[in-house]
Amino acid sequence: MDEGRKSLTRFGARLRAVRLQRGLSQKDLACPGVSMSYVSRLESGERVPSPTVVRRLAEVLGVDPSELMVDEDRTAMQDEALAWCEALLAYHDGDLVMAVDLLETLGKRSDEEMFGWCVRWTRLVMLARQRDHEGLLLAGAKLRKSWSPGPAVDALVEILRASSLRRLGRTAESVKAATEAVELSNGEGDRVRRVHTRALIALCAELTAAGRLADAEQVVDQLSARLPELGRDRLAISTWWVRAKVADRLGDRMEAAHCIREAVAMLDDFDGDPEYRCRVRLAGASITLRTPGANLDDVVALLDEVETTVAAMRRQENLLAHARALRAELALRDGEVDRARELAEVALATGQLDAEQQLRCHLLLVRAADEVDADGGDARTALAAMLEHINPEAVDPLLWRDVARIALRKH
Questions:
Q1: Which is nearest to 201 in space by CA: 242, 164, 236, 162?
Q2: φ, ψ for residue 232, nearest 5 deg
Q3: Are 18 and 28 in contact (CB under 8 A)?
Q4: Which contacts of 68-75 are long-range, i.e. CB under 8 A and separated by 24 or more positions?
Q5: Is the dihedral of CA 313, 317, 322, 327 positive or negative?
Q6: CA-based diameter of the chain, in Å?
Q7: Which residues pair with 31 in a beta bridge?
Q8: Which residues, in sequence order, are CB contacts of 350 under 8 Å at separation 6+?
Q9: What CA–CA distance (Å, rounded) separates 366 from 376?
């Protein structure tokens, strides 16, 4: 791409980023001499804006015209900001070697705007690590309204916001934030492309959580095309993992099992965050447990690895709770009804399970009561109470079928 074309692309990306930052549509930018379709062509890099058009757009956006003009210094600044972002994300993910290497390459900058932005970004990542979702949303909103090194950097903020919004049960907003991250990171350069891949993974996860599986499948196709360039790093593992999630939700257990096996196999070359490794292995155990003809010894081996890892960590009750819930399912399959009931009750009592994991445990308690011809009234009452507060579209369809069978069964 020649320099003129690159300049147009950078202007379009900057215009789109500022517009989204202000919460405006392309139609909102239309003004005398600038139609909505012309705004679209400017953002896609198809048209060269005149100085008059730049001034008019800047006036509508409420910024100085210079804010829309992206020069080489600003592009270099975004690259440095992305290096800082990657360093903090590597620290957040437990990959301290990468974090140190990236910070070493950055050197020192005296730019006050850049320094202030880096401080605010660092605080955002720390809030994510602390799982302070409300605090993160407030900090993220302030960061998006302040000076920014570039749209791809804003995309990373939206990815963190999407995750927190989902954990707060605001799935429609989480999908919107992840979608915006994909739009903002649709630029050039290796670092920007990695952000775009990260944004696609986030969008696929949010769409799956919202039950929008047809849309999630389309994103999976885009991610699958990128696997050859990812190697065996965390992005590659997450891509296989999110592919497994979508296949699992669609009821394609064999494809889900294949994808999660690929993700688990890559953990041998990944020395990062032990919590992340545990979550991938728990996903592997969960999917394998429900795959027809699966070797349950593989499930046990994965759970053993998780529990061994967690034993060396602090405050990871959520991982242990999930592992116990899966062991409860194994115990019920083996006819150990009392052990299954005990494990499920212990897992529920932690308050660390997500909605689907809780649903599986309540269903297991009803089944355990049926196995020994017990009344199971309390278990059925708890199951019924939970059904009033759960979104069916966000639950494994096969699990929902099993719940329906229990509900329709006559005693």
A1: 242
A2: -130, 35
A3: no
A4: 68/11, 68/14, 68/15, 68/18, 69/11, 69/14, 70/7, 70/10, 70/11, 70/13, 70/14, 70/150, 74/149, 74/150, 75/10, 75/150
A5: positive
A6: 80
A7: 34
A8: 317, 318, 320, 321
A9: 6
User: Which pair of structure tokens corresponds to residue 249?
Assistant: 């939700």
Q: Mind listing the pLDDT tens digit for each residue in 176-232?
A: 999 999 999 988 888 899 999 999 999 999 999 888 999 999 999 999 999 888 888
The pTM for the full model equals: 0.73
First to last CA, the chain: 71
Residues in a beta bridge with 34:
31
Rounded-to-integer distance, Cα 205 and Cα 245, Å: 8
Taking the C-alpha atoms of residue 154 and residue 120, their distance in angstroms, rounded to an integer, is 12
d(CA 188, CA 13): 10
**Rounded distance, CA 240 to CA 177, Å?**
22
CA 223 – CA 58 distance, rounded (Å): 35
User: By CB neighbour count within 10 A (0-12 exposed, 13-18 middle, 19+ buried), where does 191 fall?
Assistant: buried
Question: For the chain, what is the HEC assignment?
Answer: CCHHHHHHHHHHHHHHHHHHHCCCCHHHHCECCECHHHHHHHHCCCCCCCHHHHHHHHHHHCCCHHHHCCCHHHHHHHHHHHHHHHHHHHHHCCCHHHHHHHHHHHCCCCCHHHHHHHHHHHHHHHHHHHCCHHHHHHHHHHHHHCCCCCHHHHHHHHHHHHHHHHHCCCHHHHHHHHHHHHHHCCCCCHHHHHHHHHHHHHHHHHHHHCCCHHHHHHHHHHHHHHHHHHCCCHHHHHHHHHHHHHHHHCCCHHHHHHHHHHHHHHHHHCCCCHHHHHHHHHHHHHHHHCCCCCCHHHHHHHHHHHHHHHHCCCCCHHHHHHHHHHHHHHHHHCCCHHHHHHHHHHHHHCCCCCHHHHHHHHHHHHHHHHHCCCCCHHHHHHHHHHHCCCCHHHCCHHHHHHHHHHHHCCC
- The Cα 302–Cα 327 span in angstroms is 11
The residue among 61, 63, 65, 64 whose CA lies nearest residue 50 is: 65
Pair of tokens at residue 243: 């592919």
pLDDT per residue as tens digits for the range 255-301:
999 999 999 999 988 877 888 999 999 999 999 999 999 899 999 99
pLDDT at residue number 3:
46
Of the candidates 243, 165, 151, which has an alpha carbon nearest to the alpha carbon of residue 206? 165
Low-confidence ranges of the chain (pLDDT < 70): 1-9, 70-77, 96-97, 100, 103-112, 314-315, 407-411
